[in-house]
């Protein structure tokens, strides 16, 4: 089958919940409709980290894919595959395919972040998912500080597997980025390399084919602008967008933990008038009371359109 084209922005979107913590499917459709209207958005990711995929039941993850594809048949949907065991991951991929997903984002097993991998286990995971779903796959490179990161020889093996057409690179190590990307390009000239390094977008967009990134869930229009200028190698123009976004980046990502980016983005989406509720599911927690106003002020400073009046 022909490889999908993700050479643009692919936001990993948040999952809207109502105030009781149930999936807000009407809100999801409205949110995706807005996202689809942004020029330069080429696809979306469902059930990822930003989408609280690990806090969703398997039935909810399948229903989210099915709902979005039923409403937006022409939108490319990447479904996150997050199950720990290989059999669970294959079943999850099969359900996503049945729901209409167009491709899959393959997460490392959650247990690997602490314990790492046995030789051959990562390859086995990808082969099992491919056999179950027969959908194009995006390999997911985890941060270098975890034991779930892939070394270069393993990356090269994964990129050679049937079905793998793209790499979502989130190593967050600029030495690895600068030295490994040329090797990947040499060995796999058709591989689509997609940055997901929210805090290092200016550096990594320069040599990326696109961006598959959670930050796009909140301000997709600014990320498209930065990506377009970075890929044109117009440093001054790309740096101007980067600097304009920096207050938002600080408010969303420069926090105690990267995990707080999802509740922060939900607060921002409420301020933009895109979501009705910023509810998150445990283990995520609501942010401090001042966070909403700080995020609002950052978006105003960046010139982002807001749809909600300031709280008095």
What does this structure look like?
This protein has about 300 residues and is of the alpha/beta class. The chain has a domain at about 10-220: TIM Barrel, CATH 3.20.20. Helix content is about 45%, strand content about 10%. The protein has twelve helices and eight strands. It has helices at about 25-35, 60-70, 85-100, 110-115, 120-135, 150-160, 175-185, 200-205, 220-230, 235-255, 260-270, 290-300, and strands at about 10, 45, 75-80, 105, 135-140, 165-170, 190-195, 210-215. An eight-stranded parallel sheet has the order 1-8-7-6-5-4-3-2. Strand 2 (about 45), helix 2 and strand 3 (about 75-80) form a beta-alpha-beta unit. The protein is globular, with a radius of gyration of 18 Å. It starts with 8 loop residues before the first strand and ends in an 11-residue tail after the last helix. The model has no long low-confidence stretch (mean pLDDT about 95).
- Catalogue the unreliable spans: none
Q: Would you give the CATH topology of the domain at 9-219?
A: TIM Barrel
Please identify the oligomeric state.
Answer: single chain
- Write down the Rg: 18 Å
Main-sheet strand order equals: 1-8-7-6-5-4-3-2
Number of helices: 12
User: What integer is the average pLDDT?
Assistant: 95
Shape, principal axes of CA atoms: globular
Features:
8 strands; globular; TIM Barrel; 12 helices; alpha/beta; 11% strand; eight-stranded parallel beta sheet; 312 residues
Offer a concise description of the structure.
The protein has 312 residues and is of the alpha/beta class. It is built from 12 helices and 8 strands.
């Amino acid at each position: 089958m022909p490889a999908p084209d993700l050479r643009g922005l692919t936001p990993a979107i948040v999952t809207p919940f109502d105030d009781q913590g149930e999936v807000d499917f009407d809100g999801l459709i409205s949110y995706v409709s807005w996202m689809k209207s942004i020029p330069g958005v080429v696809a979306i990711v469902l059930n990822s980290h930003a989408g609280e995929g690990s806090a969703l039941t398997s039935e909810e993850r399948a229903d989210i894919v099915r709902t979005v594809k039923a409403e937006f048949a022409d939108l490319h949907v990447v479904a996150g595959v997050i199950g720990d065991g290989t059999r669970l991951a294959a079943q999850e991929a099969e359900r996503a395919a049945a729901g209409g997903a167009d491709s899959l984002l393959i997460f490392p097993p959650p247990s690997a972040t602490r314990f790492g991998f046995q030789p051959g286990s990562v390859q086995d995971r990808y082969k099992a998912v491919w056999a179950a779903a027969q959908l194009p796959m995006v390999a997911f490179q985890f941060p270098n500080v975890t034991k779930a990161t892939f070394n270069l020889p393993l990356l090269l093996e994964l990129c050679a597997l049937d079905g793998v057409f793209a790499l979502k690179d989130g190593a967050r190590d600029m030495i690895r980025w600068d030295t490994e990307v040329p090797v990947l390009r040499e060995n796999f000239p058709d591989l689509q390399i997609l940055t997901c390094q929210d805090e290092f977008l200016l550096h990594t967009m320069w040599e990326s084919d696109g961006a598959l990134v959670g930050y796009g869930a909140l301000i997709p229009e600014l990320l498209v602008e930065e990506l377009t200028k970075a890929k044109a190698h117009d440093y001054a123009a790309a740096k101007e967008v980067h600097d304009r976004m920096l207050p938002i980046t600080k408010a969303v990502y420069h926090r105690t933990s990267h995990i707080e980016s999802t509740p922060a983005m939900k607060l921002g989406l409420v301020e933009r008038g895109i979501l009705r509720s910023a509810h998150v599911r445990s283990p995520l927690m609501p942010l401090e009371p001042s966070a909403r106003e700080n995020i609002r002020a950052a978006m105003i400073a960046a010139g982002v359109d807001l749809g909600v009046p300031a709280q008095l």
